[in-house]
Specification:
The complex is a heterodimer of chains A (about 325) and B (about 190).
Chain A (H helix, E strand, L loop, with lengths): L6 E2 L7 H18 L13 E6 L5 H12 L3 E6 L11 H11 L3 E6 L4 H8 L4 E6 L5 H15 L19 E5 L6 H13 L2 E5 L15 E3 L2 H4 L5 E4 L15 H8 L3 H4 L7 E3 L12 H4 L6 H21 L8
Parallel strand pairs in A: 1-5, 2-3, 2-4, 4-5, 6-7, 6-9, 7-8, 9-10
Helix pairs in contact in A: 1-11, 2-11, 5-6, 5-11
Chain B lengths: L2 H6 L6 E9 L1 H18 L6 E6 L2 H17 L5 E4 L29 E9 L3 H11 L6 E9 L11 E5 L7 E5 L2 E8 L4
Parallel strand pairs in B: 2-3, 2-4, 4-5, 5-6
Antiparallel strand pairs in B: 1-8, 7-8
Classes of the chains: A alpha/beta (about 325), B alpha/beta (about 190).
């Protein structure tokens, strides 16, 4: 397995077998999370350093809970309150955290490539929790698990890849601010690997420059795409990265690209709504659709814990390869 | 977890080569019928009794015991499965098998739980299982049934019900399932 190397920085580090294996482990961990005492002693004594240089609710808490459910200790560092403010370099910061006792790093950074760079510096595992406009691999994995949970039953399969069969030909439409979205980049790579058909949809100004080289279809006509969409994946308009300056107005964006009841009614009945969070209610997604029964948004959040437990387990327990008998 | 998988898992690796059969399928059958009677005798019936098979080798044996007990005791008793991989003290030597599922679909409170495994060796699996079970609830009592006790205990653990006491060398390998019990060796490398 390639994952068992020292880092998870890109979903492209994995192959289909790896993803299948992570999904099966995630199913096992979600069983652990349903127990009376939802905690296992697997990684007791190990410490996970959480280095976040960007705001986060879901990813950070989800990684923290995942590590705690594996009985790890957490060392939490917010770079705005650390010596990085005084000018200490990231490399020195990480090296010192390692010296203090960190056995692994979860890194979120506003610059693309930081986790990749960090993984070349460190001898302990590094997990990318989102870097700039590059990638967010654990988000893609938890979306994968959420879709399997909805369209398949993970526990009923014996071979690694059978649980991924539901992705074959699945039509996924990713709507919104693709340009600034690391979630979209990881998702596009993964969906291509799993055989899904991905369509990107959004204003031209928010489409990446080389999108024609991506393994996707690009459409600028949302209402035409929605009727043939099984999974409507809505991206957040990233105002902190200046998305607003790419648009005439937020209100116009909401009118043209927001998913409201009218647009949601164009979707097939079985279609699901997903969003990586946080939601700008009334901008890219209407509140009543986010709260509707076809929304998997809270499933995404809760599945994140089991999936991250699986990733942490694979990287830190170092359980070796599974021998074929 | 079954003896064989444990030996075959990296980093030890290797191939199981059978040498001699010490129990036939019929012998196993008779031993399990006796164990079923002993369980009922010891627990004065099958009320509040539950079986939990340890993944993966103990599961088939637990299911078989359930069938026998329901025949002679005329009562359905619940069966669960437990994978102790997350509780092991040698986690780095033993990968989690994605197929090894834990399902305990009943409340352990006030139950007499019989842990069932194929081979009792060092006792470390049972120690991990005891710790795992306490996370599911507080059973009234926990007992241990094994098809084969091959000795070499490393912890103060003893079985309550034994199919066969089998003296072995430390380096030998025991493969025990419903089809019989075989002693063999593990040869390094792949066939």
């Amino acid at each position: 397995m390639s994952l068992l190397q020292n880092a998870l920085v890109s979903i492209g580090d994995l192959d289909n077998d790896d993803i299948g294996h992570i999904m099966k482990l995630s199913a096992i961990f979600s069983e652990v999370l349903r127990r009376d005492i939802p905690k296992v002693p697997t990684l007791r004594g190990k410490t996970m350093a959480m280095v976040f240089s960007e705001d986060s609710t879901r990813t950070r808490t989800s990684f923290e809970i995942a590590a705690k459910k594996l009985s790890m200790d957490i060392l939490s560092l917010n770079s705005s309150q650390s010596s990085m403010k005084k000018g200490e370099s990231l490399k020195d910061t990480l090296a010192n955290l390692h010296a203090i006792g960190a056995d692994g790093f979860v890194i979120r950074h506003s610059s693309s490539g930081v986790p990749t760079q960090a993984s070349t510096w460190m001898t302990v595992p590094v997990i990318n929790a989102g870097d700039g406009c590059h990638e967010h691999p654990t988000q893609a994995l938890l979306d994968c698990y959420t879709l399997i949970e909805r369209f398949d039953t993970p526990s009923n399969h014996t071979t690694d890849n059978a649980i991924l069969n539901c992705f074959n030909g699945m039509t996924v439409t990713i709507v919104g601010d693709v340009e600034h979205s690391r979630v979209a980049r990881s998702l596009v790579i993964m969906l291509d690997m799993l055989g899904a058909k991905t369509t990107l949809c959004g204003p031209r100004t928010l489409m990446p420059r080389h999108v024609d080289k991506w393994p996707v279809r690009v459409s600028y006509h949302l209402d035409e795409v929605l009727p043939e969409t099984q999974v409507c994946y809505i991206l957040r308009l990233q105002n902190e990265r200046g998305s607003g300056t790419y648009l005439p107005s937020i209100r116009e964006y909401a009118m043209n690209w927001g998913i409201d009841s009218k647009r949601a009614s164009l979707l097939p009945e079985t279609a699901v709504i997903m969003h990586p969070g946080p939601i700008n209610r009334g901008v890219e997604l209407a509140g009543e659709i986010a709260d509707s029964s076809r929304s998997l948004i809270l499933n995404q959040a809760s599945n994140g814990v089991a999936v991250r437990m699986a990733v942490i387990y694979l990287l830190l327990a170092n359980p070796g390869d599974i021998t074929e008998v | 977890m079954a003896e064989r998988e444990r030996r075959l898992a990296t980093p030890r690796g290797g191939v199981f080569v059978p040498r001699s059969q010490v129990m036939s399928a019929d012998d196993v059958d008779r031993a399990l019928v006796r164990i079923a009677h002993e369980i009922i005798e010891h627990n004065k019936g099958s009320d509040n009794l539950a079986l939990i098979g340890l993944q993966t080798g103990g599961v088939q044996i637990a299911l078989k015991l359930r069938d026998v007990i329901s025949e002679i005791g005329d009562a359905e008793i619940p069966v669960g499965t437990l994978d102790v991989a997350f509780y092991r003290d040698d986690i780095q030597l033993r990968p989690v098998l994605p197929e090894a599922v834990t399902t305990i679909p009943f409340d352990l409170t006030n139950m007499a739980v019989v842990l069932v495994d194929d081979v009792l060796f060092t006792g470390r699996t049972v120690r991990a299982a005891l710790q795992a079970l306490s996370d599911f609830g507080r059973a009234r009592s926990i007992q241990l049934a094994v098809l084969v006790d091959r000795g070499h205990r490393e912890l103060p653990i003893r079985p309550d019900y034994v199919g066969k006491n089998l003296p072995t060398r430390l380096t030998e390998q025991v493969d025990a399932n419903l089809e019989g019990v075989t002693i063999g060796d593990v040869i390094k490398g792949r066939p």
